[in-house]
Amino acid sequence: MNAGGDGVRRCWNMCLDKSDYFRRREVVDHYNRENRWKKKGLAITPVRFGIAFMKSYMNQGGALVHIYTDGSVLVTHGGTEMGQGLHTKVIQMASETLKIPMSLIHISETATNTVPNAMATGASVSTDLYGLAVKVACEALNKRLEPVKAKHPNAMWEEIIDAALRDGISLSATGFYKMPGLGFDINTLKGSPFAYFTFGAACTELQIDCLTGDHKLLRTDLVMDVGDSVNSAIDVGQIEGAFTQGYGFLLLEDIKVTPDGAHLTRGPGNYKIPSFGNIASEMNVYLVPDSPNPSGAFFSRVSFVGILIKLIDSSESEVMF
């Protein structure tokens, strides 16, 4: 499958430009020559992430959509909302497909008695799986409502639904979506393990105290290609959070286990995750414009961020994390 070299290159070039990398590289090098006990590091790195579960059967999602007599819509899908904005994006997709305001659409929490056999919510695929499953269900409802709309071309949404009910039209539909064309033969190295790739680049600058080892993030510039973003505010928040999570994993978090297997880092008291004091003094997020993704939900790409941080030691050699 196409590895998406153009997408990576576009993110890389945009990150070089937005971060003012080459000028800052000279400034950092000058700072390190002039200072013995404090050093700065500056690094830029690209990232590419394949979108799909590696077990191909897991790349499926279901949804259930009800329309009620007052025109309100209840959507249930198999994804788990954990603060990543999945429910909000699903509501937006239902609104776009049904051509009704988002205020009329409500989400019912995920439950196996409404949408059975749901797969895990992870691997950055849930927006595609469940958003497109909801789209399938809404399109089925649209098709049923076409004759009613033809008879009442000037009717409001609520009037159309009332007329459909009186005509005995079912106002409930299920939707199912499976990522097409997935399959990879490990022996022949042929096939497509992913639906598509998502791309990004990050440029990060930090300062380190060579005597104490203490460090501070000074600035990070993050560029992501999210296609035609369904909700750019959510995507920016996810990118910021993903960077911070990756930073914590690399430089702060340390799992400690005794020789006999006892876990010593069992809570925030002795397992340090990023807090407000660890956030970069300046954090900039840029979304690549005019980059529709025909393989994603509503031409979007899911967001995924990788980071690379370099520290400069007193001998000016770079230690890579």
Automatic annotation (TrEMBL):
Aldehyde oxidase/xanthine dehydrogenase second molybdopterin binding domain span: 15-279
Gene3D superfamilies in alphabetical order: Aldehyde oxidase/xanthine dehydrogenase, molybdopterin binding domain
Cofactor list: Mo-molybdopterin; FAD; [2Fe-2S] cluster
Keywords carried by this UniProt record: 2Fe-2S, Iron, Iron-sulfur, Metal-binding, Oxidoreductase
Cited InterPro entries: Ald_Oxase/xanthine_DH-like, AldOxase/xan_DH_MoCoBD2, AldOxase/xan_DH_Mopterin-bd_sf
MF annotations from Gene Ontology: 2 iron, 2 sulfur cluster binding; iron ion binding; oxidoreductase activity
Pfam families: MoCoBD_2
Record bears the keyword Iron-sulfur: yes
Family, similarity comment: Belongs to the xanthine dehydrogenase family.
Protein name: Xanthine dehydrogenase/oxidase
Gene source species: Plakobranchus ocellatus
